[in-house]
Amino acid sequence: MRDHEAVRDALVRQWRAIAREVPARDLDVASRVDGWTNREVLAHLTMQPALLVRFLSTAGSQPPEVDLAQNLGGTRNLAELVDTATREAATAGKIDFGARAEAAMAVLADADLSKTVTTMQGPTGLGDYLVTRCVEAVVHGGDLVAPVEPDADALRIAASALLSLLERTHPHLVAAAEALPPATWINAATGREIAPPGFEAALPLMA
Predict the structure, then answer these.
(1) How far separated are the first and last CA of the chain, in Å rounded?
(2) Rounded to the nearest 10 degrees, how much is the dihedral formed by the CA atoms of 182, 188, 194, 197?
(3) From CA 42, how far away is CA 93, in angstroms rounded?
C-alpha cells in the first residue's frame, strides 16, 4: 500500500521548492512546453493547489472509480481544455502560486487521506490524486527555465507513477524503464526528451 502521508509530504516540499524559486524566474522566457512561456507554466502550476482545495471541500467515502494509471493516462483527453484555461489564467495574471500552495497545504495537513475526491476525470482516491499532483509539480517545475530542482522523494514518486502507467500500456518495457535514471525516465515518458532506443512506440505516455 502506498504511504499517502509520505506522498503528501513530498508534494508539500516540491511545492515549497517551486514557490522559493519562482521569484527569480523571468516569466517572459520560453519554457520547455511548446508555445508556453514561464508565465503559462506558472499559471498552470497555480491551478493545481487551487483545484486541490476545491476537490477537498467535497471529499467523501464513495469508492474510487478512476485509479492512478487511468488518471495519468486520461490527461491526454483534457489537453486542449488545459491549454486554453492556462493561457486565460496567465493573461489574467493568476500566477500567485506561493499563496495558493500555502492555502492548499494548510487544508491538506488536516485532510483524511483515505477519502475520495471527485476530479474532472471522476472519483479517485485522494492518495492517488496526490501522486498525480507530484507528477505535475515535478514535471512542470522542470519545465520552467531555469528548472526547479525536484525534491528527491517527489521525483521518485513521479517516476514510479509513470512506471505504473507504462505497466498498463507496455508491460514488457517496465524493467528497461526502471533501469533509467528517474529524471531521464520522467522526461522521456512526458515527451520532454526523445524516447530512448526501444521505447519509440511507447512514449510519450502523457504530455
Answers:
(1) 27
(2) 70
(3) 10
pTM above 0.90, yes or no: yes
CATH topology of domain 4-151: Four Helix Bundle (Hemerythrin (Met), subunit A) (1.20.120)
**Element of type H or E holding 123:** strand 122-125
Reading the chain (207 residues) residue by residue, the pLDDT tens digits are 369 999 999 999 999 999 999 999 999 999 999 999 999 999 999 999 999 999 999 999 999 999 999 999 988 888 899 999 999 999 999 999 999 999 999 999 999 999 999 999 999 999 999 999 999 999 999 999 999 999 999 999 999 999 999 999 999 999 999 999 999 999 999 999 999 999 999 999 987
Every domain of the chain and the residues it spans: 4-151
Residue type, 2: R
